[in-house]
Description:
The structure is a single chain. This protein is α+β, with helices and mostly antiparallel strands. It has three domains: 9-196, Histidine kinase-like ATPase, C-terminal domain (Heat Shock Protein 90), CATH 3.30.565.10; 203-357, Ribosomal Protein S5, domain 2 (2-Layer Sandwich); 402-574, Ribosomal Protein S8, Chain: A, domain 1 (2-Layer Sandwich), CATH 3.30.1370.100. 33% of the residues lie in helices and 24% in strands. The protein is built from 19 helices and 26 strands. The strands form seven sheets. An eight-stranded mixed β-sheet has the order 7-6-5-8-3-2-9-10. Strands 11-12-17-14-15 form a five-stranded mixed β-sheet, sandwiched between helices. The chain has a four-stranded antiparallel β-sheet with strand order 20-21-22-26. The protein is elongated. Bound molecules: zinc ion (2 copies). The site of one zinc ion has 4 residues, from helix 13.
Amino acid sequence: xxxxxxxxxxxxxxxxxxxxxxxxxxxxxxxxxxxxxxxxxxxxxxxxxxxxxxxxxxxxxxxxxxxxxxxxxxxxxxxxxxxxxxxxxxxxxxxxxxxxxxxxxxxxxxxxxxxxxxxxxxxxxxxxxxxxxxxxxxxxxxxxxxxxxxxxxxxxxxxxxxxxxxxxxxxxxxxxxxxxxxxxxxxxxxxxxxxxxxxxxxxxxxxxxxxxxxxxxxxxxxxxxxxxxxxxxxxxxxxxxxxxxxxxxxxxxxxxxxxxxxxxxxxxxxxxxxxxxxxxxxxxxxxxxxxxxxxxxxxxxxxxxxxxxxxxxxxxxxxxxxxxxxxxxxxxxxxxxxxxxxxxxxxxxxxxxxxxxxxxxxxxxxxxxxxxxxxxxxxxxxxxxxxxxxxxxxxxxxxxxxxxxxxxxxxxxxxxxxxxxxxxxxxxxxxxxxxxxxxxxxxxxxxxxxxxxxxxxxxxxxxxxxxxxxxxxxxxxxxxxxxxxxxxxxxxxxxxxxxxxxxxxxxxxxxxxxxxxxxxxxxxxxxxxxxxxxxxxxxxxxxxxxxxxxxxxxxxxxxxxxxxxxxxxxxxxxxxxxxxxxxxxxxxxxx
Length: 591
Ligand code: ZN
Ligand code: ZN
C-alpha cells in the first residue's frame, strides 16, 4: 500500500514558501535524508565535479512501490506530514514532500527503486515525465540527478566552483555521519573517496573516521540527565581548539541543529581554559520531548527554538565544566599523528585555515560571522560555580613535580616518573594570582586598611567625569577617596587584597578599567577584568629570575588552582613530554 499521503493545500503552501534548493549540497541533503527516512543502513553518495555534473545517492532502505515512486514527483505529496498540526511534532529529519518535485523540475532525474520482487525505473527531465519501466529487483533506492539547473540559467550561475560545492557537501555529510553513527556513509567525488564511515554505531569511532586520530584521542565523554533533557557525547580537551565554530556539532533528537544559546553555554564552560576567539570541538546529542522544540519551518535551516533553553544551557555548562575539572588536561608536547580518510583533501581537519575550500554554506554555519561579536566568552550568566564542594582536579593534585631548572629564564623544567614537564612561570603565576584575586573580590565582607601614604591621582577632564560617574564601582571594591582640588582625588583606604608594595600600580590599573567601562556594565565581567589585569601585572615576568624556593612555592600554589592548566587568558601553563615521547624523539623507541 502507498505510504505517501496527499497533503492539504493549506499546508502545502506553508511549506512551499520555505522551499529552497540552491546548491548541490541542498540536493544531497534532500536525497540523503530521504534515504535515512527509508531506514537505510548504507548510503553512498557519488558526485561528479562536486555534484555540478551529477549527483547519485544509493541506499539500501525500504524502497518504494510503483505507486509511491510516481507520487514522489507530484507536488504536495509527502509521507512525513499530512495534517497542519503535525508540523509541530516533527520527529523525523524534516519534510521534503516539496523537494523532489522541485529538484526534478530543474534537472534530469533517474529514479530506480524497489520494495519487493520488481523494481521501478522513472525518468524525468525538466519536470516532464519521460517514461516508467520495470527495473531489476534490488531493495532500496538509487537516484541520479544530472545537469542541475540546466533549464534555469539564472539559478545556474549561483552555483559555485567544484571545490566550494564539494566542501559544502562534505561538511554536511560529516555532520550527518556524527548525528547518525549507526549508518555507514560513503561520499565519493570523481570516484575518489572523500568521506567514509563504518556505521559502527560508536560515536567516538565516527569522530575518528571524520576528524582523525589527533581529535578522537583528545575527546572526553560527557553524559547528563535532568527532567527534560538527556545529553550525551564528546567534548575536546582544551589543547584542541579551532578558530571557528564549525567543529561544534549539536543535535536535538538526532537532528543537526544550530542554536546560539547552546553554543554559548558550551563555549562558556571552557572559560579561561581557552583564549577568546577559539572554539572547542564537540559532538553532543540532546534528547528531549519533541514538543519542547520549535523547528523553524524553513526546510534548509537548522535553527531551533527551545522552550526550556535556560535549563538546557545550565545543564550543558555544568556538565562540561565538571568534566573539565575531573580530567587531567596537560597538553602533550608531541601531537599524535593525524590519520584520516580524507587527508588528501584536508577538508575537515582545518577547514578554517583552508582558504581554497572556504565554506559559504548556510547549511552549515552561516551565522559564524554575525555571532562573533556577541559571542565573546562570558561565564557569568550562570552565576557562581556550582562545584564549590566537589574536589576539583583530583588527578592534577596527585602529580608530584620535581623542578630541575629553568630554561630561558621563563620555562620551569620539572620531572617525575612519567616524563618531563615545561611550565611557563608567568602563565602559572598569573593563574595562581587570578584565582586569588577573584576569590577576594567576590567576598561579601571586605577587609579594608589605611594607606600609609595617601595616593593622589590627577585625571584629565573627560576621565574625571567618567570616573566620578562610576565611583561606586571603585568604592564597592573597598576603596575610599576624597575629592582634592581640580580633577584630582586622594585615596586613603584600600582592600587588603592588594599586593603589598604594589598598591599604587594596582590602584592605577583598576582606575584605568573603570574609566574604560562601556555602557553595559556587568559586575561579574568587571570583577573578572580586575582579577585578570592585576594577576598579569603582579606575576613574575618571563626572564625574571626566581629561586628554587619560589619555584616550589609556585608549583604548590598551582596545584591548588581550580584550573591549573591555563592562564586566565587561556594560554597553557604546563606541557608534558612523556618518557615515551622523549625516547621517540631520540630514536630510542621505534615506531
Ligand atoms: Zn600576563
Ligand atoms: Zn595570560
